[in-house]
Amino acid sequence: MSKTSGTAADDVAAHYYDSSDADQFYELVWGGEDIHIGLYETPLQEIAIASERTVQALLALATDLPSGGCVVDLGSGYGGASRRLARWSERPVHAINISTVENDRHRRLNVEAGLAKQITVHDASFEQVPAADASADLVWSQDAILHAGDRARVLAEVSRLLKPGGCFVFTDPMAADGVEMGLLQPILDRIHLPDLASPARYKTWGEAVGLTLEVWDERTEMLVRHYDRVRQDTRSRRAELEAKISAGYLDRMDVGLGHWVDGGQQGRLSWGLMRFRKAG
Q1: How far is it, in rounded angstroms, from Cα 125 to Cα 123?
Q2: 30-35: long-range contacts at Cβ-Cβ below 8 A with a sequence spacing of 24 or more?
Q3: Best CA proximity match to 235, nearest among 208, 259, 254
């Protein structure tokens, strides 16, 4: 385990995810071990099942990997994907996450799963990953990089970490290409950041550090469905949730989820699965 100092954006994210309200909400509503956007077969599919389908879809993109290295999970949360990656890849996994609360639970769950020796959980920023150059066969991230203050730097870190021929698979809520950031102000205010990335910006940042975009599977309709699904579940379980989560947090979450749904429906947001490859 290691700890690195974070940026102002890291501090904002850590403060939010370390709160008791957020911890309870993501455990009870968002999917428990997996707190990312799901791939839904039906509008009312369980959030946890849809989240598992996203993990499986990203695993299917993680092909033709080098051997002998590790896996790095950027923004690992409670470690649901890290544990799947450990079993699937049979490689050491370095889980990078800024939230102490999430990391503590992640480590407990690793012990329960018998994976504590295979997964190292780092209290660290994914702008400063405590792992060696060219040590990773695969870098993985789900809906986390939006919280970074310098996303181009994150792509540079990914390139530094990857072996030649290694790949980076990830999802991230983004602005649609060409959208003015002012149109996303309610969302930006919610996450306390000045902007979002876009598919074209990720492509440009990747190319600048030797990463080639091989797959862009645009699935923005799933972003809309996921945030709407979480909002519906929160509303229907409101009385139960208020026993563990403050009413103010639930009110703010309802408004925030609505902004994401509106932005997606208006064509101002983008989400999907990406794969980059490090030049061999």
Answers
A1: 7
A2: 30/230, 31/80, 32/78, 32/80, 33/77, 33/78, 33/79, 33/80, 33/83, 33/109, 34/77, 34/78, 34/80, 34/81, 34/142, 35/77, 35/78, 35/143
A3: 254
Under a CB-based contact definition with an 8 Å cutoff, are residues 226 and 37 in contact?
yes
In whole angstroms, give the CA distance from residue 253 to residue 30: 12
Chain segment 68-105, per-residue pLDDT in tens: 999 999 999 999 999 999 999 999 999 999 888 889 99
Residue closest to 128 by CA, chosen among 158, 92, 165: 158
Tens digits of per-residue pLDDT, 9-55? 555 454 555 578 887 888 878 766 778 999 999 988 999 899 999 99
- Average the pLDDT over 115-122 and give the result: 97
Interatomic CA distance for residues 83 and 6, integer angstroms: 25
Buried b (16+ CB within 10 A) or exposed e, 88-108: bbebbbbbbbbbebbbebbbe
Alpha carbon 146 to its chain centroid, in Å, reads 8
Q: All domains of the chain, ordered by start, with CATH?
A: 8-274 (3.40.50.150)
DSSP per position, 176-240: PTT--GGGGHHHHHHHT-S----HHHHHHHHHHTTEEEEEEEE-HHHHHHHHHHHHHHHHHTHHH
The pairing of strands 70-74 and 93-97 is parallel
CA distance 120 to 218: 32
| C-alpha atoms less than 13 angstroms from C-alpha of 18 in its C-beta half-sphere | 12
pTM (whole model) above 0.85? yes
